[in-house]
UniProtKB/TrEMBL annotation:
Keywords: Hydrolase, Metal-binding, Zinc. It is an enzyme of class 3 (hydrolase). It holds the Pfam family HAGH_C. Pathway: Secondary metabolite metabolism; methylglyoxal degradation; (R)-lactate from methylglyoxal: step 2/2. It comes from Desulfobacter postgatei 2ac9. InterPro entries: Clx_II_MBL, Glyoxalase_II_hydrolase, HAGH_C, Metallo-B-lactamas, RibonucZ/Hydroxyglut_hydro. Its EC number is 3.1.2.6. This is hydroxyacylglutathione hydrolase. The keyword Metal-binding applies.
Amino acid sequence: MDIQQFKYGADNLGYLIYSEKFCIAIDPGAPDDMAKFAIEKNIPIDIVTNTHNHADHTKGNSALLKKTNARFIDCTTLSQGQVLDLKDATGLEVMLTPGHTMDSLCFKGDGFIVTGDTLFNATVGNCFSGDLESFFNSLKQLMALPGNTLVYAGHDYVLQSLKYAKIIEPNNPNLNGYAAAYNPDHVVSRLSEELKVNPYLRFNTSSMIERLKEKNLPRETQFQRFSSVMEVF
């Protein structure tokens, strides 16, 4: 199983997950480039789906479906633990991750995860659903994955997110190294790196708890700490 990233618009990222004989398009905002890549690899695009139903992620669905014989799978019909079969490779597992939107989900592959607007590299999505507790539980689910899991997000917000992370945790020694490793042509990080720099995943660290204490913010439970970081920073 392999993954190919496609940038479109100002900062959106879409993906092809493929094996030798099968391919799944996720958030296909670059339909021309995706179709061209599949032709060059001599693999059919069999499935088109999305991480959630915001227009910037679904805008390429129709165009890619017209260019291929793919079938469309509405992401709202997918269920926790469901596996999208790649036939000749390990399947792509669905993880329901409500929070950014209530229909948000992630796709877990062999050593990587496509996170849409739930988890970005160096930040997280806005909680447009208003359900902060669901968002917290979704991020906890992702945080439990192996540390070497590669995080492929739905947008490239890395540089601006690192500036904000520096404001939140000015003494975090890991931020400079993370910034130096950033490649705008292939935006990815490991989960272990996110746990070191992403302020919205660091609600259990002593440095973040101290920051919340300085601001006299609720911090007794994990959810209180997460809520404080999300609502104040």
